[in-house]
Structure formats: structure tokens, C-alpha cells
Amino acid sequence: MHASAPPYMHGWFHRLQAAARASLAHESHGDIRYIIVAERISIYQVDEDDMEVFLLLHSVVMHVTAALVILVYIPLSAPVKLLVRAFVKPLRKEDLRGKVVLITGASSGIGEELAYQYAKEGACLALVARREQALKAVAAAALERGAPDVLVFPGDVSDPDQSRRAVEETVAHFGKLNHLVANAGIWSSCSFDQVTNITAFTKLMDVNFWGSVYPTYYALPHLKASKGKLIVCSSAAGTVATSRMAFYNASKAAQLRFYETLRTEVGSEVGITILTPGYVESEITKGKGIQKTGEVAVDEDARDAQIGVFPVGRVEALCEVALDGIRNGDWYVTWPSMYRPLQLIACLAPEVLDWMSNAMYKEAATAQGRRPLGQRILEATGGKRLYPPSLLQPRIKTD
Question: Quick one: average pLDDT of 308-327?
């Protein structure tokens, strides 16, 4: 056997050769004669030089492809995409009247506002969240805004059985499912070395990742049947590594990659729009999340340390932009728009983003305790007054 063959193949080769010698040299089956000659058994093997050439070839192909995409495809396709977006997509915008939309995490924040935006367009709604009374209040408001019918399902989508029942009850009630909005999420903001209860942070993956995947799994056959759409509320944090949010960033990155992969698998059967918002008014930006001790609580000081001088957008503005993108069939919706160049920097010059993050979140002692730079600037300038009014009076729905 060839000297360069991997060791694990030697035993296999010799066993095959011995078996061939022991077999009949000639076996006849009708007019077909099979000749087995053990001494002539040969296995083509690739030595190390061949493999290096093979890898080099692929490397050259990928680099040339990347160069063609950057130098040719992007410059040529950009104006075409702009023309399509300006003149073609408005003519093909989806009519949502009578469509059935299932929204998870619908009791507050982005999920609540998306319910209202869909209601204004005449869609029927199925709303899922853990807080029943808050969910019923959202349902009543959605009916007032024009939704023909609203189904309420109190449940926890991080539980696969409850996700299954939410989808089944929606289809049983309305007879179909056109859109699934996977929106349920939870936040955390603390440095990794400040965590005192590491196991509590598994909840972030349970809610942010599996809480999207479970309802998607059960809804996908119905979405394929209706040629519907799947909308997932990820985050700019899934593309930009921001300090103090390691667990949250990881859960959103996993979510983002899952749905990008799913898009390649389902093709045109189901449209997938991924929302990657930045800081937007919600219970998250009110400070609700998993604290370093592992408890879910509201901590405005931790919120201010995280957001710092970054602006917080109005949830209504985000959802108007999001629904427009959903109806157009856009692959991604990023808002506020300032996060688009940040994503580009993260891709092309990650060291710059790393420096910015270190500088913004580096803590220093103050009269109020240790504060990162962003929070010190926020407090010194009174920039907190620019927060949306809902963040200045952070009432959290508890029922």
C-alpha cells in the first residue's frame, strides 16, 4: 500500500486483499464473468502534495469569486436593486387583509406594536405570550385598530409543547397560517466576569433561540402550504460584538445564522425576513433582563451603562419600517439605519469595533461607583432626556 496512506487504512486494505485471495478467482453468472485478482487490487490514494494542490485550487477559486463579487457584481447589481426597490416592489407589496399572523412575545414591545401594525392592515391575529392579562389588553387594542379577529394563547414558546399547541390552535381557529413572527426574547447586560450564577443564563438560549425555533418547526408545514412568510426578530447584537452582552449577543447570533441557513433550505417556498434592530423602546431598554445574579429584574442603572450615549428609537417607527420590509419580501430590516455601517465595520475592520467597544465600556471610579465611559457621558450631558418618554417612566407589565 502507498506509503502516504493514513494508518487507519492499512488494516482495511490488507483484510480486503486477503479476502480477495481466498475467494474464487473466477465466478460465472450467466454470460457475465467477474474476475477477481487480489494482486491487482489497487486503491487510488491522495498524498499530502495532492491534497495541498487541491486546497490551493479551492482557495484560488474562492478568492477570485470574492474579487468578482466585490468588483463586478456589487457595482452592477446595486443600481438594479435600487430601481427594483423604488419601482417594482411597491407594485408587488403584499396585501395583508384577511391574512393570519401568529406573533410570539406579543404582550409588549416590538411584538405588541407589530400586532397593531398588522391590525391596521386588516390581518387576523394569533397572539402568544406568558402574561395573559397583558395579552388580552393588546388583543382588545388590535381589534380597535382594525383586526377582524384576534386569538389569544397564553404560553411560553421556550416549551416545545406549548409552541406546538399555539400553532395548532391558530390553524384550527383560522384554517390557515400566513405569517409567523418569532419575536419572544429576553436580555442581559453584565460583564462575563461579574456573573455570579452562570446556569441562570441558559434561559437566554431557551427563549431567544429555541423560543423561535420551536414555533418555526411546527409552523413551517403550514407556511409552506400557504406560501407564507417567516419573520424573526433578531438583533444588531447578533452581528456586532458589543461588550457586556456576551450571552445575549451569542443567542442572537445563533438565531441569525439559523434563519439564514433555513432560508437556503426552504428557497422560495417560504419568505424569510430577519429583523436586526438596534436599541428600540421596549421592556428590554427599560432595563428588564437577566441580571448578573441570575434573577430577572429591572435595573435602570445597568441599562444606562449598556446604552450610554446611543440613541433609542421609537418602537412604532421600527415596526412601520419592519412591516414595509415584510410586505416587500426583504431579507433583512435593520433600524435605526446607524447600525448598518456598524455591521460593515464589524465585517471589514473588526479591530476598530473592538477598540470602540473597549473604550465605550471601560469602567472608571466615580462618586456614584464604577461607571463605563458611555454612562459617564450620559450623566454629564443629561442625554437621558433624549430617551423616549416610555423609558423615563419604566412601567413593566407584570400580569
Answer: 95
User: Which amino acid, one-letter code, is at 155?
Assistant: G
Percentage, residues of the chain above pLDDT 90: 67
Q: What percent of the chain has pLDDT over 70?
A: 87
Spatial separation of the C-alpha atoms in residues 106 and 318, rounded to whole Å: 15
pLDDT in tens, 342-388: 888 988 899 998 998 888 888 876 767 788 888 888 888 888 888 88
Average pLDDT value for the chain:
88
User: Tens digits of per-residue pLDDT, 87-114?
Assistant: 888 888 999 999 999 999 999 999 999 9
Q: CA-to-CA distance for 340 and 358, rounded, in angstroms?
A: 20
At a CB cut-off of 8 Å and minimum separation 6, what does 369 contact? none
Give the Cα separation of 380 and 372 in Å (integer): 12
Measured from the Cβ of residue 162, the count of other Cβ atoms closer than 10 Å reads 18
Residues 387 and 248 in one domain: yes
Same domain (yes/no): 289, 146: yes
Question: What's the start-to-end Cα distance of the chain, in Å?
Answer: 73
Q: Identify the active-site residue in 248, 259, 361, 387.
A: 248
Q: Helix 109-120 to helix 132-144 angle, to the nearest 10 degrees?
A: 30
Annotate 181-207 with DSSP letters as a single string. EE-----B-S-GGG-S-GGGGHHHIII
**Dihedrals phi, psi of 45, to nearest 5 degrees:** -125, 145
Whether 103 and 36 share a structural domain: no
pTM for the structure as a whole: 0.85
Q: Same domain for 207 and 118?
A: yes
Cβ-contact 236, 342 below 8 angstroms:
yes
Q: Note if 248 is an active site residue.
A: yes
- Give pLDDT, residue 12: 46
pLDDT of residue 394: 64
User: Using one digit for the tens of pLDDT, what is the confidence trace for 117-140?
Assistant: 999 999 999 999 999 999 999 999
CA distances to 71, 73, 162 from 179, in Å: 37, 32, 18
Q: How many distinct structural domains can be found in the chain?
A: 2
**Torsion sign across C-alpha atoms 344, 345, 349, 354:** negative
Where helices occur in the chain by DSSP H, the ranges are 7-22, 48-68, 74-83, 109-120, 132-144, 160-174, 202-204, 211-226, 246-266, 300-307, 315-328, 339-348, 350-361, 373-381, 389-392
Instruction: Fill in the DSSP letter of residue 292.
Output: T
Tell me if the bond preceding 336 is cis, omega within 30° of 0. Answer: yes
Domain ranges, residue 370:
98-392
